[in-house]
Amino acid sequence: MTETVHNWEDHGYLVTYIKKNGSFANLRIHPHGLVLVDLQSYNDDMKGREEVDQLLNKVEERMKELFHSNIKRVKRLPAILRGGVIDRYWPTADGRLVEYDIDEVVYDEDSPFQNIKILHSKQFGNILILSGDVNLAESDLAYTQAIMGSGKEDYTGKEVLILGGGDGASNIDQMVIDGCKKHMRKTCGDVLDNLKGECYQVLIEDCIPVLKRYAKEGRMFDYVINDLTAVPISTSPEEDSTWEFLRLILDLSMKVLKQDGKYFTQGNCVNLTDALTLYEEQLSRLYCPVEFSKETVCVPSYMELWVFYTIWKKKTDI
Amino acid sequence: MTETVHNWEDHGYLVTYIKKNGSFANLRIHPHGLVLVDLQSYNDDMKGREEVDQLLNKVEERMKELFHSNIKRVKRLPAILRGGVIDRYWPTADGRLVEYDIDEVVYDEDSPFQNIKILHSKQFGNILILSGDVNLAESDLAYTQAIMGSGKEDYTGKEVLILGGGDGASNIDQMVIDGCKKHMRKTCGDVLDNLKGECYQVLIEDCIPVLKRYAKEGRMFDYVINDLTAVPISTSPEEDSTWEFLRLILDLSMKVLKQDGKYFTQGNCVNLTDALTLYEEQLSRLYCPVEFSKETVCVPSYMELWVFYTIWKKKTDI
Fold this sequence. Notes:
2 copies of one chain form a homodimer. Helix content of chain A is about 25%, strand content about 30%. Chain A is of the alpha+beta class. Chain A has 2 domains: about 1-65, 2-Layer Sandwich (Double Stranded RNA Binding Domain), CATH 3.30.160.110; about 140-315, Vaccinia Virus protein VP39 (Rossmann fold), CATH 3.40.50. A 5-stranded mixed sheet of chain A has the order 9-10-11-13-12. Chain A is elongated and about 80 Å long. The mean pLDDT of chain A is about 90. The interface between A and B is large, with 54 and 54 residues. Chains A, B: Belongs to the spermidine/spermine synthase family. Chains A, B: This is Spermine synthase. Chains A, B: Keywords: Polyamine biosynthesis, Transferase. Chains A, B: GO terms for molecular function: spermine synthase activity.
């Protein structure tokens, strides 16, 4: 092994160990006592990983000896696997690093609108990931239940308008539908096989003109379920046309919603309080006064709690 | 910046850039085209993190220019924060790296049995972590519901024996109870304030002698809920006395369980199929024949699906 030492004087040391097989390690010693060991190796076999584990065991033992159990805390993190065919890291909406148990790339295509991935997780089943955002997994019945009113609604004989949905995705991307139809059947069943059934019709087009047409025709719905997109993460509504888009959808939806109808939609990660507050402010700026309630739900594949909204037209005194 | 280049010939390059302020970066170029950039800096302020983000933006842009959009994939992972007072990384039972939204250390003590941490998560509330294992968070009603039979049981007038429990933790560690009593009230309510109530009694002692005493006295229960420990992860039952311990608990529990009683317990992460299979094999080795069912449940703070067992004495033909 080659050893290279850098001494910052004020900032401690960096020692780099380079092995002939392409592996290397950094030992970073901070003056206040923090010691960081990073080992990087190129392995695509489990044997290599076991060797790394054994090496780290030895480093840990040796350090404990050297410091005569004066070490306050030792922490070893699981290895990060990079550059492989399978990418296991899909950060949460609130920016945390989480590793999924992905073992297969089922589908990976670019549509004109976005990158569409369907990855297989051992525990969650197939997961739909649109441009890096986890959208829905086969385990996520909780999502569908939440965006349908958490089992408290009786849909018998009701008129329901779903924007997006079926797969939790954008409604004008035929390739999302094609991918989900084939690989997310636990989620969509056979609904996407035929775009028209006895009591439903799937339109693959921009929902804005459709909503405008319905509004003009005076067609009204008992429920509008907006499953188009999460609340924008940006917190500058004046800069971001997505907020305007959201408000436009909301206004048009209210126009086609019966006076006693309900509008269901997802919000965002419960931790993104600024974005959620901004969304709620948009609700006070619609053409008609509305009221809302919200519910925090655990969607298994999200690895973070998610907020769902129920919105209804404010009852006016007669 | 100081630049140091190492050329492996067969294995590509490692370039180390060292900055005067104690930061450094590794650029690892593999011959088959994988390029890894690792940047390590010592920052405890958000400003430092923004600078790092801006720097990585520049690196990404420059690389895209240099390779004339011939880059197949670019992935940037959230920074890993190490060495701070707050540790945000609590790997899952199946060994995956997950970052929690921890923002406060509420309690951190060593008892004679284990390290006991209660950390505050923005979304999950207080989380009890015993020797590094996430045990239960205030968000985890789903755990309690699952280990009580998922709402399908009527406990009115029934005799119930809970081993462990209340906090999901070991039953002989007074310090766990003390910590939970104060910091996990959403989970335990006021049950731990008084160890004896109108219809319950909490014993802080080893459950084995208690079970033996009950068995000897002929005291029988409608339900036994074992919330002592997860199924051991080790898959060598002959080497591991934990399996014997588990079987002893199971045998004693069956002795105090009425013929038509039910035994509830947690299993393990759904991905640890070997450990779960071994557990199920233990069930066929008890003094009396038993049958079981299992259910997979999403416990919010676990970030992995968890298996729960219901076990009952096999009905014998009369």
